[in-house]
Amino acid sequence: MKFTVNTNHSASVANLHLSRNNNQLRKSMARLSSGQRIENPTDDAGGMAVAMKLESQVLRSGAVMQNMLNAISYLEVQDGVLSGAGEILDRMSELKSLYHDVMKNDTDKASYDKEFRDLQVQLFEMSQIKFNGVSLFAQTTSDGTGDALFEGNSSQLNNINVFMTPEAEQGAIASIHRSLLLSAITINAATLSAVSFSRGDQSTFFRLASEDLSETINLGEISVQVYAQAIQNIATLRAENGASMSQLEHGYDHLIMQKNNLDAGRGRIMDVDVASESTRFSKYNILVQASTSMLAQANSLTGMALTLLQ
After folding, report:
1. Is the dihedral of CA 31, 36, 40, 46 positive or negative?
2. pTM across the whole model
3. What is the pLDDT of residue 273?
């Protein structure tokens, strides 16, 4: 056996293993303390790249889900106003019947007519309600170049697009309506069809909403059929509202599942397996202690050379 003092190969080998085991022990401790399998790109460069893209998609999905909830809230507020408008029209038609009661004198009829005129102004005020500064109802087309028309062609409507996937324009889009309340209650008495609010001349095209009390019409000028058609139009607007709300709710449920699946996929890449990593931690903890002990033993070997010199 050869004894040397300047070179201690055994100590160098023990020190190398101690360094390696200590490095693995530190990694295992970092993974267990953070809960992540990949602490830096050197652990799994490809996996980290995929996980980053999945995380970005998960965050975008969360933002889209919040946008969809806001759109549902918008529609809920809109439907509440439409429901109120329908109740006002019901009252208008009721006043029309009461107005023709033979038992009513002129004073009674004037009272009914006063209420009828006030309800017209209230309907117009309801059409101006906004949701966080965004109009619930429209009078012009989306580009503002023309009048919005109830049940008109696509260019005459006023819609808002809501993205239902993280891919935005490349994915599913829900188109919700700024309901055309004013057009729906502006009726052509000859055909009982809705026309644009701006065409209401109160002679043949009756506007059941008015910005100014002086521009309102009285009960004796409108037939019951006009009220009935206006109520039918409001019912159609509420049906459109309900369809848009249903589409958003189904899209939201689908997006929840998609987001959960994406999050799970990211977790499989990034999250540490605690059971497996605990085993690794125990292994390298023991190896570090063993390497430290062997390094001490290797360093003591050079002391044997002194025995030969004594």
Report:
1. positive
2. 0.80
3. 86
